[in-house]
Amino acid sequence: MRIPRVRRLTRPASALLFALLPSVAAAQTAPSPPVVSLPEVEVTASPEPLAVPVPRSQVPAAVSTVTGQEVVRTGIPDALGALNQNVPGVSLQNAGGNPEEPQLTYHGFSASPLEGSQQGLAVYVNGVRFNQPFGDTVQWDLIPSIAISRMDIEGANPVFGLNALGGSLSVKLKNGFTFHGGDASLYGGSFAQVGGNAEWGWQSKDGHTSTYIAGNSMSEDGWRDEQTTRLNQFYGDLGWRSDSAEAHLSVTAARNSLDQPGTVPVDILNADRDAVFTGPNEFTNRYIQVAGNLNYDINDHTSLQALAYYTNLSQRVNNGNTPNFQQCTIAVAFLCEQDGVTPLTDRSGAPIPAFAGSGPYSELSLQGVDTNGYGTAIQANDTRKIWGRTNNLIVGASFDGGVSTFDGSTQAGGFDPASVLFVGPGITIDQADLSISPVRVTTTNGYYGVFANDIYELTKRLSLTLSGRFNSAQISLADQNGTALTGVHAFNHFNPGVGLTYKFGHGISAYVGYAVSNRAPTPAELSCASPTSPCSLANFFVGDPDLKQVIARTVEVGVRGDGTPFAGGKLNWAIDLYRTETQDDITFAPSALAGLDFFQNIGQTQRQGADVTANWVVGKVNVLVGYALTNATFRTPLLLDSPLNPAADAQGQEMVQPGAHLPGIPMHVGKLGLDWQVTPAWIVGARAIVYSGQVLYGDEANLTPNTGAYWLLTLNSSYQLAKHVQVFGLLENALNQKYAVYGTFSDVTSVPNVYAPNTTNTRSLSPGAPIAAYGGVKVTF
């Protein structure tokens, strides 16, 4: 039969529509027999799934692509690790302490699984918006790395919709038209890790139908106390195509359990790096997504793409914390709030007895979020020439909705210093003033977008890109226990973009671009925006005033070369300079009450920097070099509460001056990689990453030392034992460096500890993993 015509589309008009349909370009097939080769670097921009990807030379922004081959380069699929090792502007932080749920930062903006993080990146998986409706969080553990075909990370572009302040990440999964055959792997190693994954792709002989399925299961006890990981992930795709159309139906499912030990005061870390401060810290995700998409070629110049999806996420968190209460100072038979005077009451209104006398006490936060997400999008693409010159126009509209129910309660209990865990009796706290009380709230999100994107070739070398998107966010909260949380919020904004690209020849091109983007406050942020009623995930939400939406304006210039001849090989390289000014940025700021925080607009912030990367392939050797400078600073003076910061003033406050660095963002990151095919059967590889230190959260004024610089070395090797059998090995943190991936301050006086019983140092870090070795076997069929 005739293969369906492939239409050359422009850069995606919306990340939501990137993955509408599987690519028929460059099929990724499980080799039979396996081919041992070095990965080639893709030099195309973000993929339109039914079209040949647009050359980077026509994209007026930084674009980096990580292929599925790079995701499985070490033998164990690792999507975020591949992004971290290959994209200079990417870095990973980890407040929770579980390796499956890090915070990804790009150009100073983050995509994080944790509420309270500034969500500044738009993430899409197969075209479906992956920022969760309740808090715009990104749950990385739901994505099966084994099923990834490619990932494209791009600088600021308004057509990516909400949250694309610093850019976007589009993840494309495999299907039976692009992946043929199958493979299965078993692996294990340090920290009692045992895992396995398998994938299989099939296409009918007539080319009309296809099937792809993939699964992954992994269990690890972790290197720290109270740190375990249990992953169970599935992805399946059914495809159909004719001469003029292609459609897919896919299902993604996950059932994961992650214990996150969190940060630990430094004196405890010095005594035992495996220790945790308080527990338990149990985190579970149950997820299913069903998505359908269609591409239809109306004629030789016009095509139509459409997408619809439904998702369900059920998340549960049990989090042990330092207490926000103590034995009453007068009525000593009862427990009181931190003031020692206001008694704690249970659900019946009765005062809670001081069942452990003077202590120690702790509290357990029980949280649940159940979200039903749904959405649809449609776009039309026209490639007819205008005035005799090539033109590529996309127009479309999208809707992303969600209904979430949040349940939360706080239990009072004792504290076991030996295990550092919460113990019973677990009495639910219900204060009449709602300062600590059970919460049940239903939120409804409606995100509407109308967009257009056009690339017009002014000459054969010079192209003009014009883009724009109107975003409308409608958010309502309905309190199920009363009326305090009930409210309706609306945010609207038009985001324009313009860019020029110029092709010099020999694969070298340059670009300049300007883009505006926005994000609306999330339901979680809107419900916790008052310094007089701060919250944490232990104290939940109260009714608060509106926050302002965040507006970002980005200027980006760069030059790059694709396939440039160099020293007997080929060189792909890029230099990107950017500056993003944000207005009404939102942060999770400390309150005057230790351990409690609230969301607030903080005026202007700025992220500016440079990314430099080069990938040289010569013979059987592949060399990767990258460097990123990210200067992320406050631009508006701020007076913030930070009662746990030892450098704060006598009132527990810090004065943030313009130019102070934003917390959690390393200013310098350097990356070096090497892959060498020693023999046709044997490959060795190495990756080294160097990080400068990060400012601690709670030290926005930059008054204390940062987390400290460090560098990590990872080694890997694989050997083809037989036609269909490969063995592989991986050594992470090969030099066993001691380092920290996140920092903040903790209240060390509220609970005792056996490691450093007299400590007063509130500095608290999340330690990085020590040396670890893994190995496995892969069979292809």
Care to describe what's here?
Helices cover 3% and strands 52% of the residues. Strand 11 (209-220) and strand 12 form a beta hairpin. By secondary structure, the chain is an all-beta fold. It has a 22-stranded antiparallel barrel. Strands 1-7-8-5-6 form a five-stranded mixed beta sheet. Strands 2-3-4 form a three-stranded antiparallel beta sheet, with helices on one face. The longest helix has 8 residues, at 79-86. It is built from four helices and 40 strands. Residues 1-53 and 536-545 have low confidence and may be disordered.
Counted by DSSP, the helix tally is: 4
What's the main sheet like?
22 strands, antiparallel, barrel
Distance between the termini: 26 Å
The secondary structure category is mainly beta
Helix percentage? under 10%
Poorly predicted parts: 1-53, 536-545
Strand content: over 45%
Total number of strands: 40
Cα Rg: 26 Å
Average pLDDT works out at 87
What's the shape? globular
Keywords:
781 residues; 52% strand; 22-stranded antiparallel β-barrel; disordered N terminus; 4 helices
Q: What is shown here, in short?
A:
By secondary structure, the protein is mostly beta strands. The chain has 4 helices and 40 strands. 3% of the residues lie in helices and 52% in strands.
